[in-house]
Every structure is written in C-alpha cells, then in structure tokens.
TrEMBL record:
<dbReference type="InterPro" id="IPR015424">
    <property type="entry name" value="PyrdxlP-dep_Trfase"/>
</dbReference>
<comment type="subunit">
    <text>Heterodimer of a large and a small subunit.</text>
</comment>
<dbReference type="GO" id="GO:0004760">
    <property type="term" value="F:L-serine-pyruvate transaminase activity"/>
</dbReference>
<dbReference type="InterPro" id="IPR020578">
    <property type="entry name" value="Aminotrans_V_PyrdxlP_BS"/>
</dbReference>
<dbReference type="InterPro" id="IPR024169">
    <property type="entry name" value="SP_NH2Trfase/AEP_transaminase"/>
</dbReference>
<keyword id="KW-0032">Aminotransferase</keyword>
<dbReference type="GO" id="GO:0019265">
    <property type="term" value="P:glycine biosynthetic process, by transamination of glyoxylate"/>
</dbReference>
<dbReference type="InterPro" id="IPR015421">
    <property type="entry name" value="PyrdxlP-dep_Trfase_major"/>
</dbReference>
<keyword id="KW-0808">Transferase</keyword>
<dbReference type="InterPro" id="IPR000192">
    <property type="entry name" value="Aminotrans_V_dom"/>
</dbReference>
<comment type="function">
    <text>Soluble hydrogenase catalyzes both production and consumption of hydrogen from suitable artificial electron donors or acceptors. This subunit catalyzes the tritium-exchange activity.</text>
</comment>
<feature type="domain" description="Aminotransferase class V">
    <location>
        <begin position="28"/>
        <end position="329"/>
    </location>
</feature>
<protein>
    <recommendedName>
        <fullName>Tritium exchange subunit</fullName>
    </recommendedName>
</protein>
<feature type="modified residue" description="N6-(pyridoxal phosphate)lysine">
    <location>
        <position position="194"/>
    </location>
</feature>
<dbReference type="Pfam" id="PF00266">
    <property type="entry name" value="Aminotran_5"/>
</dbReference>
<dbReference type="InterPro" id="IPR015422">
    <property type="entry name" value="PyrdxlP-dep_Trfase_small"/>
</dbReference>
<dbReference type="GO" id="GO:0008453">
    <property type="term" value="F:alanine-glyoxylate transaminase activity"/>
</dbReference>
Length: 384
C-alpha cells in the first residue's frame, strides 16, 4: 500500500505527527528573537532529558558528528585513551582516534558480546602515572543489540580520577536511564534520529566541567565542531553557524511529548518492548545475538536458522507488509537482522512487527514454531 512504510530499524525511527507538522512550517530566522526563545526552551528540555545541569550543545550533524566533536574537543595528539570495541560503532571511534593521531588502546570483545568491565579496570589500575586521558565506550552497540555496562566501567574511570569518560549514547539516550550528573559522565554524544523521535540532522553533546577543563589544553584541529564556540553561543540561546531551524522546532515538539510521558515511563516502555521482542523471538525458536543480561533496550539482533537468509527475511517483510527491519553490518551482513524498538514506538508496533515476521518466515518455509507463538509471547510480556 502506498505511503504505508513502517520503520522498525534503529534509526531513522518513526516521527510523531506534532514533530512532522513543525518540520512543515515556514522557517524563521535563526538569528531572530523568536528562534532564540525556542532555543532557550529546547536547551532546558534537553537538560531534563539528559538529567544534567551542565551544558547540552546542539550541532547540525549526525550522531557521528556529535561523537567526533566529543573526542576532538577534549583530547590532544598523542594522548593515550582506552576505546571499547565490540561492534561497528566501537570500531568507528578507534578510526576517529587514529584519524586525529590519538593513541587508542583497544579493548575488544566479540561482536554480540558485551565489553568486559574488568578489562578496563585492569588497564586503569595499572596506569600509575595517570597517562590515560579518556575512556571511550559505546553504551548501546547498534550493530549487535548489545548494551555495555556503562555504570561499572564508569566507576573504574572515576577511581582513576584523571581520565574522562566519553560515551556514545546514540541509541541509548532517550531509551535508557542515563543520569549524567549522578554518574558524573564527562562527554555524552547522541543523535536526533533515534530516541529523540525526529529525522536525522542534529547531534547533541553533553559536557561536564571536568571536560571543559580538558578543553583548555586540547590541541586537536577543529572549527565547525568546536564546542567552545557552541557553548559561547548557547549561552545567548543561539548557535555559531546556521542551524537546521525546522529540525530544532521539531525537536521542541518531540521533547514536549517526552515530557508529557515522563522519563520513568519512557524507560519502562523501552524495557517492555525489548522484553516483548526477545520473548517473541525465543517463542519462534530463533536465536538472539546478544545475551539476555546485556541486551539493548533499543534494538534486537536476531540470528535466523541455518538455510534461511536474513536478507531474504527482511526483503519478504518489506514486500509483504511494508515494514523495514535492519540488516547485519560487515561480517554479519546476511547473518542477522535487527528489529528496532526505539523512540516513537508503541505496543501496537511491536505486535505488528512480530506478526509480520511470523508470516514472512512461514512463507519462506520455516515451520519450527507454533503459529501465533511469537505474538502470544509478546502479548504476555506487554500485558504483564
């Protein structure tokens, strides 16, 4: 059916009508008094979402741009950093560090497995001369559906005292409880097309006072992504360069929706959808890539049975039901598919996606499940 496409991917995510209507309005001047008022309101709401009283800066960039800014503004060439790598986006931060001459020591885990916090503890405790300048981790590894143990890793960083913790929260901010001030997180990057429920185009960076101290001596090149400029203009409810005006208006609308729902309800909804999705997959006798105790609240990676290609499953779901699920990346391409349950997603969407999955794998000849088992399992979780 025309114009009936349903996104069940980890980004872009579905967008509520109020945000779409804000996007459709005629733009206003980005240096106008009216827009300054919008920026002031949006900034206050962003601090609420991030659970911080510190700076939360808006960049016209993707989540990768926000994370790159979070690295280059607080580090210097040759700095020693620890980078967690257990998926595509952990790999990306290693690549960014290498591009800028930052000395990245990689702490790896197999794709589909969480990072081991004890590996970080060992490196940090062995650093008697306090040479490690930062620890960079991906909280929710989008490529595999793994949720890394941010709280424990952060506790080891805090015990080190000198190192910053830089967090990729692109698919966890707005889905997981990340109390930035309570945890003392230094740099947290995220992107608009995920839990914020608006299209791609804006990046966000939360910055602690400790990180701003590091900014004073950081020597990596920066211009457009200079957070010092962004901070100076944010104090005047503005931005150093032309921002995406209508995206900020859409952000205002989506944040208002989020505030009406409330943080606790948002986090509980994402947890419920994760649990319902995983229960359904198990009921269909399909395998899950991430273990139960390290499963993302935003994305579930599914391993199809031998002989059933993941890309064929995705293609069938899209063709028959106009539902888009995500594929695997790099060596997992064709070996997994990923179901997004992030942002503007309700119980109805979960049930629809699971029913479409059941029908599609059945049409492809897979019969190792009782018809309706996935939907039944999801309903039991959603009703509990």
């Amino acid at each position: 059916m025309e114009d009936k496409l349903m996104l069940m991917i980890p980004g872009p995510t579905p967008v509520p009508e109020q945000a779409l209507l804000a996007l459709a309005k005629a733009p206003i001047g980005h240096r106008s008094g009216d827009f300054s008022k919008v920026m002031a309101d949006v900034t206050a709401k962003l601090k609420w979402l991030h659970q911080t009283t510190n700076d939360v800066l808006i960049l016209t960039a993707s989540g990768t741009g926000a994370m790159e800014a979070g690295i280059i503004n607080f580090l210097s060439k040759g700095d020693r950093v620890l980078v967690g790598d257990n998926g595509k986006f952990g790999e990306r931060w290693v690549e960014v560090c290498n591009a800028y001459g930052v000395n990245a020591e990689v702490i790896k885990a197999e794709w589909g497995k969480p990072l081991n916090p004890e590996d970080f503890r060992a490196k940090l405790e062995a650093d008697a001369n306090k040479e490690i300048k930062a620890v960079i981790i991906t909280h929710s590894e989008t490529s595999t559906g793994v949720l890394n143990d941010l709280v424990t890793i952060n506790s080891y960083v805090k015990a080190h005292e000198k190192a910053l913790i830089i967090v990729d929260a692109v698919t966890s901010l707005g889905a997981n409880n990340i109390p930035i001030d309570e945890l003392g997180l230094d740099v947290v990057g995220s992107g608009s097309q995920k839990g914020y429920m608006i299209p791609p185009g804006l990046g966000f960076v939360a910055v602690s006072p400790k990180a701003w101290e590091a900014y004073k001596t950081a020597d990596l090149p920066k211009f457009y992504l200079d957070l010092g400029k962004a901070r100076k203009d944010a104090a005047k409810n503005s931005t150093p360069f032309t921002t995406s005006v209508n995206m900020v208006m859409a952000l205002q609308a989506s944040l208002e929706i989020m505030q009406r729902e409330g943080l606790e309800n948002i986090f509980a909804r994402h947890l419920r959808h994760r649990n319902a999705t995983r229960a359904a997959i198990k009921a269909l006798n399909l395998d899950l890539l991430a273990p139960d105790d390290a499963a993302s609240h935003s994305i579930t990676a599914v391993v199809p049975p031998e002989g059933l290609d993941a890309e064929k499953i995705r293609a069938t779901i899209k063709k028959k039901f106009d539902i888009v699920m995500a594929g695997g990346q790099d060596h997992l391409n064709g070996k997994i598919f990923r179901i997004g349950h992030l942002g503007f997603v309700g119980d109805r969407d979960i049930l629809t996606a699971i029913a479409a999955l059941e029908a599609s794998i059945s049409s492809l000849g897979y019969s190792n499940f009782t018809s309706g088992a996935g939907v039944k399992a999801a309903i039991e979780v959603l009703n509990s």
